[in-house]
Amino acid sequence: MSDSTPELQWMDADGYQLALDGGEIRCRNARGKPLKTIPAKARKTEAFDTLSATRELLVRHEERCRSTVLGWFLNGGEVPLALIAAVWEDNAWRHWLSDLLIHSGTVTGLLHDVDDRGLHLIGRDGGTVTLAVTGTGTLNFPHPAETPGIAAWRELAVGSGIHQNTEQLFREIHPRPGDGETLRASLGAYADGSYGETSELLERAREAGFVAGLDGVRVTVREADELTTAVLEFRTDGPDDGADLDHLYCERDGRVISPEYVGPVAYSEAIRMAEYIHAGSTPETESDGW
Q1: 113, 143, 157, 226: which could join 162 in a potential S-S bond, CB 3.0 to 4.6 Å?
Q2: Which ranges carry the DUF4132 domain (predicted)?
Q3: What is the pLDDT of residues 71-101, one digit of tens each?
C-alpha cells in the first residue's frame, strides 16, 4: 500500500480501539497501549468489519492505479497532463507515478511533483523544468528500449537517490537479435521448465502484472501504433495439476506473427516476461528451439 495516514483515526470496538494504518488494522486497549494482535472480541465488532471493508477497497484501488500506470507505460499512448494533475493528490496514484520518466512535446524529465503551477520534472542536467497544465497538453512514458541516452538517465537516478515504484528506467532490456536463426532460438529457450501446480505459475504471473489464464501468460505492448501481445504457452490439465512451459510467441489481431515482425519493445517485454516465469520453474528438458 501507499503512505500510511499520519494521524490514525481510532474507532471504538467494545473496549478496544481500532484504526487503519496503511494496509494494516491496528489495535490498542482502553489505556491506549498498542496490541500486537487483535483480540477476538474486537474482531466481532462493526468497527472491525468497517475497517476490513475499507482496507479491501484501498487494496483494489491501489491495484487499479498500478495496472493503469503500467498500461500507460506499455501502451505508449498519450495521457492528458490534466489527468496526471488531477490524480496526483491521491497517495496510490502518486506512489506509482512518482519519478517516472515522461516526455511531453520537446520536454523530457523525471516526474517529481505536481502543484497548481504544473508538473515539475527533473531534467537530465539535474535542473527542474515545469510543465504548465493545459487542456490539450499530453505526455507519454517512454520505454527504456527506445529512450535515447538511457544510461545518462539511469546515472542521474542513481546519483539523486531516485527510486521508481513502477519499474521503468532500470527495467530489463533485451535487444532483439539481428539474425533470424538466433531470434527464433531465443523465443524457444523457455520450453524446459515446469511448475508443480499451475496455480503457483498463475499467481507468480499475476503478481508481476501479467495477464494469466490456463491458456498462457500474456503481456501486451503498443508499438508503432500496433498492439502486439507476447504469449508464453504452457501445458496443464487444470489449476491443481502441474504445468510445463511451452512456446513463446507474439500475436497481432489474434494471429501469430513471424518473429521478424516483432518490434524491439515488444520483443524486450516478451523476453522479460518469459525470463521471469521461467525463473520460478524447475528445469526439465533441453529446448529444441522454436
Answers
A1: 157
A2: 32-210
A3: 999 998 899 999 999 999 999 999 999 999 9
